[in-house]
Amino acid sequence: MQKLLVCYKWVLDEQDIKIAGDLSLDTGRAKYKISDYDKNAIEEGVLLAEKHGAGVEALTFGTEAAKQSLKDALSRGLDKVYWIGDEAGKQADAFVTANILAAAVNKIGSFDLILCGEGSSDSYSQQTAPRLAGLLGVPAITYVQQLTVVDGHIVAIRKLGDCTEEITVTGPAVISVLPEINKPRIPGLKQVMAAAKKPSEEIKVTDLGLAAEKLAPKVRSTSLKGYSMDRKKVIFKEANPADNVAKLVASLAQEGLC
């Protein structure tokens, strides 16, 4: 294994998003971050590169804000980051994202393994990785919780409900990883300072040669709203605690909760 690529997304930090009284979302003060699931993909790519003496680079697509991710991404052990910032990133769904990523991969060059997070922290469609694999014509393995390279073969253990499945493939391949695959490192000051000296490269969507229909999303968000959970505020005031418990159980059973 000589070269790995990690795809990640720069998303709004959900902890900073506020829900207004009319349930509209206030993102005015929200900061961006690398999608939590993609941090696992980056960590796994770096771990594999360190173990096998391979190179590991990253690719991200989004709006112009994607450029802000470079220092954080590079401080996590990556050798280089390719970034694509375009207006198409505002409404891009998995269809558009996969088309752009695939075209960018073909432009950059070949890779032995491409890693993605299970899904992004915002839309969590879980479609980008398998779509990317299909466009590149390589195997896709999803929900991977353990990954090794043995004698040049990629061995993945994927989680399927209450069981696991072991799959062995020869690269190149696209693999999406679960959060339990590793614990992403927290970059220290040394790593953050070193990131400033690492290379990054911008790729323009207009240079990818994609037809207009490849940039037209199949799914569009027409509105985004928060949700509220109204409590029933049922209070049981029987003198005998056992009677309160009995009424509670009966109430839960009536709601289909027990």
Automatic annotation (TrEMBL):
Family annotation (SMART domains): ETF
GO molecular function: electron transfer activity
Entry-linked InterPro entries: ETF_a/b_N, ETF_b, ETF_beta_N, Rossmann-like_a/b/a_fold
Ranges for domain Electron transfer flavoprotein alpha/beta-subunit N-terminal: 22-212
Protein name: Putative electron transfer flavoprotein subunit, ETFP adenine nucleotide-binding domain
Species: uncultured Sporomusa sp
Gene: fixA
